[in-house]
Specification:
The protein is an alpha/beta fold and 406 residues long. It has helices at 5-15, 59-62, 163-171, 210-220, 235-248, 266-273, 306-324, 378-381, and strands spanning 21-25, 38-39, 49-50, 54-57, 71-79, 93-97, 109-112, 116-120, 127-131, 141-142, 153-155, 176-180, 184-190, 194-195, 206-207, 224-231, 251-255, 275-280, 283-284, 288-294, 297-302, 335-339, 343-344, 350-360, 363-368, 385-389, 394-395, 400-405. A hairpin with a 2-residue loop joins strand 20 and strand 21 (297-302). The chain starts with a helix and ends with a strand. The model has no long low-confidence stretch (mean pLDDT 96). It binds adenosine monophosphate and magnesium ion. Residues 190-191, 256-257, 304 line the site of magnesium ion.
Length: 406
């Protein structure tokens, strides 16, 4: 029986373990997933402060102020950000105040500098300010705890730590946090035809491209790849390499050798390592693939064809690695795109075609990248996305397909 992509992915994800936690410095926790609930132990901001450069006043004093009839207030002091006020603001008084400076007691609003004029009154040394526009009570004031209240739950476990979250951790006075470990992922290519970079290509041999692509995909998915090189089409040696790889990693990714060819030794080796299922997932590219668990560690047997390997990683391995790292959103968002050409899928499998997705006035358009053979790596190099062509569909230009970025 062939499983749909959704069925296979669901079954696979249900068995993927979430990795244990570790404590990290917040300078080095971006991209990680929070493993604790974070409560505020202080108000943010910690005190009422000015949102503007201007004058802290009592709103009632300037209510009737206008261009023709300014309110005239006596200045008591100047407050820069970081200063603590030393004088209360009484009726008829104001304090010059900068953005972020603590509000003096007695004042309940800030008048912005642009509608004021500093001067001197007729008295011996009292500085005054003329206010040409009224303000409401509380206007231009940022209140203690208005961003976060002391004691509040600020972030829950599972939160992906992006730059805003890291700023928030710092404002919560947290220098370290508990996050999930990132998966360490061993990557092995298999096949006697594979030649290392820099070595001459003998007749019948090809370059090993998958290992490099998978290595980069692991990094892009937030994992830590380990390069385990090339395993020959020899069972004993392949088994030795796979076991060495598994011992050092949280997951193993192999490429090639999982179809039904005579030299596809990976199948036999994987079967000896753990509980592995050989899946025929109803997708193109990428039908032959293997998935299983050995010693609690996921093993992904990707197809050897370069396009299949990259696409199967994207649809299966990437969400699995995200789950291991503690993420809750595992799949890339999909959206509708309008086909710019006629596309036919005569297969009994969903076709993930490589596409160039462009936006025009809020509408996404999709055209394919030309020849779509599973060995034609260039079909992915030219693409910025995948479009899903359902089984047996004949679609004409103007019809919509489901798209996602790649
Ligand atoms: P296999 O599944 O091992 O039969 O491989 C299927 C196809 O993918 C064959 O044409 C292989 O030569 C090719 N292939 C397998 N592994 C790699 C690799 N690491 N890099 C590039 N092509 C590969
Ligand atoms: Mg092979």
């Amino acid at each position: 029986m062939m499983l749909t992509v959704q069925e296979a992915r669901q079954r696979m994800l249900a068995t993927i373990p979430v990795l244990p936690t570790e404590t990290r410095d917040i300078l080095n926790c971006d991209g990680y997933v929070l493993a604790e609930a974070l409560y505020a132990t202080e108000d943010i901001p910690p005190f009422d402060n000015s949102a503007m450069d201007g004058f802290a006043v009592r709103a009632a004093d300037v209510k009737a102020a206008s261009e023709a009839h300014p309110a005239v207030l006596t200045l008591v002091e100047t407050l820069a950000a970081g200063d603590a006020p030393t004088q209360p603001v009484g009726s008829g008084q104001a304090a010059r105040i900068m953005t972020g400076a603590m509000m003096p007691s007695g004042a309940d609003a800030v008048v912005m500098q642009e509608v004021t004029e500093i001067g001197r009154n007729s008295g011996p040394d009292a500085a005054i300010v003329k206010i040409f526009e009224g303000v409401d009570e509380k206007q231009n004031v940022r209140f203690a705890g208005e961003s976060v209240k002391n004691g509040a739950l600020v972030m829950e476990p599972g939160k992906h730590l992006r730059p805003p979250e890291i700023s928030m951790l710092a404002s919560l006075n947290r220098a370290e946090v508990t996050v999930h470990r990132k998966p360490i992922v061993a990557v092995v290519s298999t096949g006697d035809e594979l030649t290392r970079l820099g070595e001459p290509l003998a007749p019948g041999k090809i370059r090993d491209s998958n290992r490099y692509g998978i290595y980069a995909q692991v990094k892009e998915a937030g994992g830590i790849p380990i390069d385990m090189g090339i395993a020959p089409d020899d069972e004993a040696e392949t088994e030795r390499i796979f076991r060495t790889a598994l011992a050092q990693a949280d997951a193993l990714i192999t490429s090639g050798g999982v179809s039904v060819g005579e030299y596809d030794v990976v199948r036999n080796v994987l079967e000896r390592l753990g509980e592995i299922h050989f899946w025929r997932v109803a997708m193109k590219p990428g039908k032959p693939q293997a998935y299983g668990i050995a010693d609690g560690k996921p093993i992904f047997g990707l197809p050897g064809n370069p396009v299949s390997s990259l696409v199967v990683f994207e649809l299966f391995v990437r969400p699995a690695l995200l789950k291991m790292a503690g993420h809750s959103a595992l799949l890339r968002p999909t959206f509708k795109a309008t086909l710019a050409e006629h596309v036919v899928n005569r297969d009994g499998r969903v076709n993930y075609m490589r596409a160039i997705l462009t936006e025009e006035n809020g509408i996404w358009n999709a055209r394919t990248t030309g020849p779509q053979g599973s060995g034609i790596l260039h079909s992915l190099v030219l693409a910025n996305g995948l479009i899903t062509i359902p089984t047996g569909a004949t679609l004409t230009a103007g019809e919509t397909v489901v798209a996602q970025f790649f």
